[in-house]
Design a protein that fits this description.
alpha/beta, Dehydroquinate synthase-like, alpha domain, Rossmann fold, six-stranded parallel beta sheet, 2 domains, binds zinc ion, two-stranded antiparallel ribbon, globular, 12 strands, 11% strand
Length: 444
C-alpha cells in the first residue's frame, strides 16, 4: 500500500472536520476482522445494550456457517435472544429483501430488542438495517462475505410492490467478520464484492462532473477513503481467485470503507454513478420481463468496464462539440415503469442542457479531464482485474444475451435524475454511435 494513503481506521466512530469544509461523522464504531470475534462480540455490544437483548437474523446458510455459534456465544454471556432464520423463497432460492419478507420477520420480533444483529451479507444485512431503522434501535452485523458495500452504507435497496427502491437508514454500529468465513464464502459473492469495490473511482469522476457543472458538494476525502486499499486487490486479482487471506481482507475492508464514504457523501451521490445505473437498468429490465439477473456487484463490475471505456474515449476529445440528448424516453422499453422513468428524465433534461452549454467551453472541459485523469482507470485494467480474479467480465458471465446488454446500454441514460458518464457520452456522440463497438471490444 502507498505510504501516503489515508488511515481510515483512525476515523471509525469519529466526528471530524474535513478539508471539504464540512464536519463528517462515521457512526460505525467497530470494525473487527478476527477469527476469534464470535467470542468477543457479546462483550463489545454489551456497551450498547443495558438489558442485553438482541434479535439475531440469519438465513439457513449463514445460520449453519455462523449464527448458531454466535447465538451460543450470546447465550453463554446471559443475553436474551430471539433467533430468526429467514426462510428461502417458495422456489428454493435464498430470501430477498422485499416488503413481504420484512413484514414476516417484523411479526416474529414480538418484544422489542435493544439491538438487531444480522448474520449474513446483502439480503440479511439489508433486512436487519431496514428493520432496526424502523424500530429506532441500532443494528450490528456479523458479515459472512466480502460481497457489497452495504454493511456501512446508509441505504437499503428493497423491492417494494415489485419495484426496486432505495430506503434511507443507518449504517451498522459494528461490523464483525472472521477471515476464515469471508475467505470461504461462495466465490461468486466475493467477485460481486470486487465489482462493487471497483466502482468507486468511476462514481467519483461522475461526482466531480456534478461538482463542476452544478456545484454539487464534492468531498475529496470520500474518494481517498474508498480507494484506501484499492491497489491491494486491483494489482493482485489472481490472489482473489486463490482466496489469499491478506488480499481478501483488503477487499473486505475496501468495501466497508466505500460504505463509510457513502455515509459521508450522503445518499444521493455515490450509488448513482453511471456504472451503478447500468446494473439498476438490468434489474429494472428483469423486473419488467422476468429475465435473469446476477448479483449487484457482478453487474456493477461490467458497468465499471463500460464507464471506464466511455471515459477513455471522452478523455481523448480535445475540442468538444456537444449535442442535445433525445427529447423523450422510449416508453415501450420500460413497460409499467415508464411514467416514473419519464418524470425523472424530464427533471434531468435541464441538467443535460446545462452540461451541453458548459462543456462546450474548451477550458472547462480540459479542467474536468485534468481533475479526473488520476482517478479513472483504463477499461483494460478493470477488465483484466475482473477476469484474472475469476469474476464477471463479459455479458455471458451475468447470464445476459448480447441484444439484452445492448438495449440496456441504449436506455440507461433515461434512468435517474443525475448526469453521469452515460449522459455525457450521449452529448458527445459516443452513445449511441459506438454501442456495438464498445460491446464487442469490452463487454464480450
Ligand atoms: Zn453498489
Ligand atoms: Zn469532506
Amino acid at each position: 500500500m502507498q505510504a501516503n494513503r489515508i488511515d481510515v481506521e483512525s476515523l471509525i466512530g469519529k466526528s471530524f472536520s474535513c478539508e471539504c469544509g464540512r464536519t463528517h461523522i462515521i457512526p460505525t464504531k467497530y470494525l473487527i476482522y478476527s477469527d476469534d470475534v464470535i467470542s468477543t462480540m457479546p462483550e463489545i455490544l454489551e456497551r450498547h445494550c443495558s438489558d442485553k437483548s438482541v434479535a439475531i437474523i440469519s438465513d439457513s446458510r449463514t445460520h449453519k456457517v455462523a449464527a448458531e455459534d454466535i447465538a451460543n456465544s450470546f447465550a453463554k454471556a446471559n443475553w436474551s435472544l430471539t433467533d430468526i432464520i429467514v426462510p428461502d423463497t417458495s422456489d428454493g432460492t435464498p430470501p430477498h429483501c422485499d416488503d413481504e419478507t420484512y413484514e414476516r420477520i417484523s411479526a416474529e420480533i414480538s418484544d422489542k430488542p435493544e439491538m438487531i444483529l444480522a448474520v449474513g451479507a446483502g439480503t440479511i444485512n439489508d433486512l436487519a438495517k431496514w428493520l432496526a431503522f424502523d424500530m429506532n434501535i441500532p443494528y450490528a452485523v456479523f458479515a459472512t462475505a466480502a460481497s457489497m458495500t452495504g454493511y456501512t452504507s446508509p441505504i437499503v435497496a428493497p423491492t417494494i410492490k415489485g419495484v426496486k427502491q432505495v430506503v434511507c437508514a443507518q449504517p451498522a454500529i459494528g461490523v464483525f467478520a472472521a477471515g476464515r468465513i469471508i475467505e470461504n464464502a461462495p466465490f461468486k459473492l466475493t467477485t460481486a464484492g470486487l465489482g462493487d469495490a471497483l466502482a468507486k473511482p468511476m462514481s467519483s469522476a461522475d461526482w466531480i462532473m456534478n461538482n463542476m457543472l452544478f456545484d454539487e458538494h464534492y468531498c475529496p476525502l470520500c474518494t481517498q477513503i474508498s480507494s484506501a486499499t484499492e491497489l491491494t486487490y486491483l494489482d493482485n486479482p489472481s490472489a482473489i481467485r486463490s482466496r489469499q487471506p491478506n488480499v481478501i481482507e483488503a477487499l473486505f475492508r475496501g468495501l466497508v470503507y466505500c460504505g463509510f464514504a457513502m455515509t459521508i457523501a450522503g445518499t444521493n451521490v455515490t450509488p448513482s454513478g453511471g456504472e451503478h445505473i447500468f446494473s439498476h437498468t438490468l434489474d429494472m429490465l428483469a423486473s419488467i420481463d422476468g429475465g435473469a439477473n446476477d448479483y449487484h456487484g457482478r453487474q456493477v463490475g461490467l458497468g465499471v468496464i463500460l464507464s471506464a471505456a466511455l471515459y477513455s474515449e471522452l478523455m481523448q476529445i480535445e475540442n468538444p462539440t456537444l449535442r442535445d440528448l433525445p427529447e423523450t424516453i422510449d416508453k415501450s422499453f420500460w413497460g409499467g415503469l415508464a411514467d416514473g422513468i419519464a418524470n425523472d428524465y424530464a427533471a434531468k433534461r435541464p441538467l443535460t442542457k446545462t452540461m451541453q452549454e458548459k462543456f462546450s467551453d474548451k477550458r472547462l472541459w480540459r479542467k474536468y479531464i485534468d481533475r479526473i485523469k488520476g482517478i479513472v482507470k483504463t477499461p483494460n485494467r478493470i477488465k483484466e482485474c475482473l477476469k484474472q480474479a475469476g469474476g464477471a467480465s463479459g455479458f455471458s458471465d451475468i447470464q445476459c444475451e448480447r441484444d439484452r446488454v445492448k438495449s440496456v446500454i441504449l436506455h440507461m441514460h433515461e434512468m435517474g435524475t443525475r448526469c453521469t458518464v452515460v449522459e455525457l457520452s450521449w452529448a458527445m456522440g459516443i452513445l449511441p454511435d459506438r454501442t456495438d463497438d464498445l460491446i464487442d471490444e469490452w463487454l464480450s
